[in-house]
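Morning, I've got a small favour to ask if you have a moment. You're getting the sequence in one-letter code plus the fold written as tokens. Thanks so much in advance, here it is:

===
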Amino acid sequence: MNRFTMQSSSFSPGDCHFHGTLARDAAGRLYDSRLRQTIDSRRRPVSAHELRSVEALTALRIASRLMRQRMDRWADKHGLSEGRLHVLFQLMGSPDRMLPLGELADQLDVSPRNITGLIDHLERDGLVERVDDPDDRRSIHARLTQAGAKVLQGLRAEGLKWQTSVTTGLSDDELEQLRHACLRLVENMSGVPVAVGETA
């Protein structure tokens, strides 16, 4: 069994690398001038809306890649991978801190083989255990152990700290707009309807 220790995981802006060139437009909004030059150099001209679409989605992809890099490094400092970390958080929020392996794979959008490998690693480290379903012996559940819960509780506060560091300088209104814009993209791509009548 591996021993997990809580290490300080402070991040500086130079931890992640961006190969574009940040600039500000007339309204003071950031854009990647290198990307814009590349788009402008193409033979077929693009409309203003097409340009905004390409720039926005490219910025989203870059931000997602850098977030994943940061998440991977943070998890690695604690002897985990991003996938194993997601398993632990998913189990922590589930009834009795356990889920059937098939349901866990569905919730994390990974294959059954992938979830089996993740659980194998976590079980060896003593953070998760497999338990039989008393009502269906063909079904195996993954359950968070006390050791796993302890590790996760220590990571939660630290995780919130580095996530808020990423959003430094953004107002609450900007964060809500960011959330809304990202979920509008999710809505467009997935076709998931907005729940009628549900307001925060």
Summary: The radius of gyration is 21 Å. Residues 1-10 have pLDDT under 50 and may be disordered. The longest helix spans residues 48-76.
